Amino acid sequence: MSEESWTVLKLLQWTTDYFQRNNVPEPRSSAEVLLAHVLAEDRLFLYLNYDRPMETNELAAYRACIKRRLGGEPNQYITGLQEFWSLPLRLSPDVLIPRPETEVLVEAVLEFLDKADPNVDILDLGTGSGAIAIALARELPAARIVATDLSMAALQLAQENAKLHHVDERILFIRGDMFAAIPGASQKFKVVVTNPPYISHAEISELPREIRDFEPHHALEGGPDGLAAIRHIIAEAPTVLCQAGALFMEMGADQTESVSALVIDSQRYENYRIIKDYSSLDRVLMAIKAE
Ligand SMILES: C[S@@+](CC[C@H](N)C(=O)[O-])C[C@H]1O[C@@H](n2cnc3c(N)ncnc32)[C@H](O)[C@@H]1O
After folding, report:
1. H helices within the chain, ranges in order?
2. pLDDT tens for residues 54-100?
3. HSE of 115 in the Cβ direction (CA atoms, 13 Å)?
4. Confidence at 251, pLDDT banded by 50, 70, 90
5. In degrees, to the nearest 5, what angle opens at C-alpha 145 toward C-alphas 141 and 146?
6. What are phi and psi of 257, to 5 degrees?
7. Ligand 1 mean position to 125 CA, how many Å?
8. Which among 242, 240, 291, 237 has a CA at the least distance from the CA of 259?
9. CA of 84: how far to CAs of 20, 31, 47, 215, 237, in Å?
10. So what's the pLDDT on residue 172?
11. Which residue's CA lies nearest to atom 6 of ligand 1?
12. Is 195 close to ligand 1, i.e. is its CB under 6 Å away?
């Protein structure tokens, strides 16, 4: 990028071409997201201001973003932002980037819960950026939510996000290892919702560079077979679920057989079903606790 006179449009065209030649996915939208971030505006502003000249300091900041993107860093870590459930969330490399398919989890919980019950208690295990807990708190104004994580950095960010969306007073953030974070919480929750790490150790090295080299492995890896956290959650969730409470858990599309077997073998659930995501892939386990 030379020091000629750049406008928004010229810069977008140049970057799109540069990203394309360097195999950066979705080159035009990636360029737009980064330029809007540098200008502290939204993408619509770019369309309405194609002829706007760029300042030297803006060019320098944009150049730094392009360099990071070219190195494989996801846009969301560069901009520090991602939308989930139409809510802008702050992000850092300490947390997983919330995925659209995780919204299926939120939808399934909302469908299950009787919205007329104002006193529902929900446990979000492994909250990361707080995406699931915050979306549920926004949809269920009287719900009380406990959100846990092993990572202190994740919990701090989740708490910031909860404040941003005015639900921090109804979400209790607790650091700890799975259910050990909430000792004495027997049969308290109507819903346990979780998007646990479920990728096997071997599969981690096969992930796209953007995920493998930038997203936190403790948020992704579920042990040698990808089922370590899943196994533990299926076994232990009934101890904290109230009568007729339910476990909602995200899983890998290829884990249906193993997950179903774990649910059946536990003999702790009276029925279960697997819910598909927007790509028609198996994605969410819903299992109702047995009496
Ligand atoms: C796949 S990420 C999900 C994050 C967020 N819920 C979402 O859907 O975007 C899994 C989360 O579980 C947390 N985690 C991993 N192992 C844990 C454990 N043993 N106890 C509590 N949290 C754990 C990770 O730190 C990470 O934030």
Report:
1. 8-21, 27-38, 43-48, 56-70, 75-79, 103-112, 131-139, 152-164, 201-204, 209-212, 217-220, 228-240, 256-266
2. 999 999 999 999 999 999 999 999 999 999 999 999 999 999 999 99
3. 10
4. very high
5. 165
6. -65, -50
7. 7
8. 237
9. 27, 21, 24, 17, 25
10. 96
11. 127
12. yes
Assigned token pair, 196? 């646990």
CB 105 within 8 A of CB 248: yes
Task: Please work out whether the CB of residue 131 comes within 6 Å of at least one atom of ligand 1.
Answer: yes
Question: Which residues make beta-bridge pairs with 84?
Answer: 87
If phi > 0 it is left, if psi is from -120 to 50 it is alpha, else beta; for residue 157 that is alpha
Q: In the chain, what's the furthest Cα-to-Cα distance?
A: 72
How far is CA 143 from each of CA 119, 168, 238, rounded to the nearest angstrom?
6, 12, 20
Q: Which residues contact 7 (CB under 8 A, 6 or more apart)?
A: 50, 51, 52, 53, 54
**Residue with CA closest to ligand 1 atom 27:** 128
Q: Whole-prediction pTM value?
A: 0.95
Atom 10 of ligand 1: nearest residue by CA position: 219
Give yes or no for a contact between 175 and 152, defined as CB atoms under 8 angstroms apart.
Answer: yes
148-90-205 Cα angle (round to 5): 70
pLDDT (tens digit, 9 = 90+) per residue, 6-48? Answer: 999 999 999 999 999 999 999 999 999 999 999 999 999 999 9
Alpha carbons 77 and 270: distance in angstroms, whole number = 42
Residues 210 and 44: their CA atoms lie apart, in Å, by 26
